[in-house]
Amino acid sequence: MRLRTTASVACFMVLAAACSRRAPAPVGEVPTPPAGATVCDFDAPPDPDAIVLFTVFDRDLVALHADSEVARVHTFGARYVEAPPIAGCVWSVLSVTVRAGRVAALARCAPPEIRHAVDGEAHYELVVADAADGRVLYETETVQPTKVGVFLGDDGSLAVDLAAGGSLFIDPSGHATAIDGWRPHAAPSQQAVAVSRTCADTTACRPDWAWWTPSGVRPLSSQPAYDEAAWVGDRLVYVAEDVAGALIVTEQPGARAVARVPGLAVGAMLRVAGAARAGRVLFRSSDDVFYVFDVTAQRVTHFGASAPAGYRPMPNQDFIAWLDEDGNLVAPLRDGAETGTNGGLYRSTDDGATWHLVGRLVEDALAIVSWRRAGADLVESVSFGRDAFNPWPVLLQVVRDGEPAASALERTDAAGPLQASLSGDGRCVAHWTRAADGHGLVVARAHDERVLQVGTAREPAAFDSIAWADGV
Questions:
Q1: Which DSSP helix (H) or strand (E) runs through 271?
Q2: Are 108 and 125 in contact (CB under 8 A)?
Q3: Cβ-based burial of 230 (10 A; exposed 0-12, middle 13-18, buried ≥19)
Q4: 301, 351 Cβ separation under 8 angstroms
Q5: DSSP H or E segment with residue 70
Q6: What are residue 397's DSSP bridge partners?
Q7: More exposed terminus of the chain, fewer Cβ within 10 Å: N or C?
Q8: Gap between the Cα atoms of 286 and 182, Å rounded
């Protein structure tokens, strides 16, 4: 198996535009493996040139192809050959995102003493490329974004949230428009962005929400009760209030629907409790009740906010839950014994009535997160370690529906938490691992546990530094 051929090494040494290995195709046409194949069939890929995933090796945004070759897409700071934009600054990539056939990567160059801080003098660079072949479509310099940073829309447009207030809207061609005094809350959809007014002095300015489009700003039909919302397709979902109490509003430009929340106490606050999944949004009230809202059916169901009978929340946490890709509830829980330390991920397919273990229990579990793709779960557990060289060991499990937990792929060499990603077909996991000369990237197949060593970066990678080309 080739890790990097002479051709791919040469690609690192030339301009990014020369690294494309296939004739240009329309933006967004990412190849789909045939039935039965997986995106990490590196031994006999259906299309050797197809890009599997994007990641970062230090200053380089790179593409991993289906034949296991790695090609450079873009080098951040390459234009500053003679002098860096800020004296002594060091480059680090903050995020890599794939959506709608495009990949967007954001990097900054900051002095060493503040390179891991959110604030401080820094230079930022944003690049957008075709996810199908790695062609750079445009690159731009930008002022400091917020920690949330970049929202990539379903049409290839971008909204950039700026730390100094305001935002940028970048259309699919790369043309940027400044949106002074408004910050985005979600990815653009059909060139409409949900924004709220930035207020340095909250006593003199309300955080009004509106729709921004290239033709102007249009206020929402009602104002969110709190500075938060969820995005479901091309619809914004938020909590508003009237004389009768809280209500859930579903809105898009020119259309609006309202749903009352049954059983919600008068005066109780209702807050968004997590990202929307499968057309459903999770809310939590101030009197500790979870509500699941089905956007299409405009229906609300609810369940208690305490851990289900026989279980306990994770250490130092209240009971928390979130929605998986299928819109079902999942929650990290410990076994019911007061002295028990085993923890696991549990799923409810009936809105909290019953719960079932996903994968296996983990000893001394402290925190658990998960991602679900195409009938498979990537469950990441962080435990209390007894090894001084690995005080917080991370266990990765890939558990497929209908298969016993004993047959799940397990990886114990992850470099740290939140540095793994599951492919869109649910059959491959990519994660960073510690290496002698830095951090290495590996890709493992769930069905036969074959592992590909992709490459090594000198610097630790950002949490959002692995993005599969299928947009997951």
A1: strand 270-272
A2: yes
A3: buried
A4: yes
A5: strand 70-75
A6: 379, 410
A7: N
A8: 29
Residue given tokens 């230079």 in the structure block: 123
Q: How far, CA to CA in Å, does 148 sit from each of 111, 123, 242, 390?
A: 21, 17, 31, 30
Question: What is the structure's pLDDT at 2?
Answer: 30
Q: Hunting for tokens 């039965």 — which residue is that?
A: 36
Quick check: 1 and 43 in contact, CB under 8 A? yes
- Kindly tell me the sign of the dihedral angle through the C-alpha atoms of 324, 327, 328, 334: positive
Mean pLDDT of the chain: 83
pTM: 0.85
- CA–CA distance, 279 with 327 (Å, rounded to integer): 7
- The answer to whether 446 and 39 have CB atoms below 8 angstroms apart is no
Q: In what order do the strands lie in the sheet with 193-197?
A: 182-184, 193-197, 209-213, 216-219
| Most confident stretch, 54-58, 193-197, 453-457 | 54-58
CB 319 within 8 A of CB 329: no
| Residue written as token pair 């402290």 | 366
Q: In 220-262, which ranges are E strands?
A: 230-232, 235-242, 245-252, 255-260
Name the residue type at position 243: V
Single-letter code of the amino acid located at 332: P
Query: 161-187: per-residue pLDDT in tens?
Result: 887 778 889 998 889 898 888 888 888
Burial of 375 (0-12, 13-18, 19+ CB in 10 A): middle
Token pair of 442, please? 């590996």
The amino acid at residue 70 is V
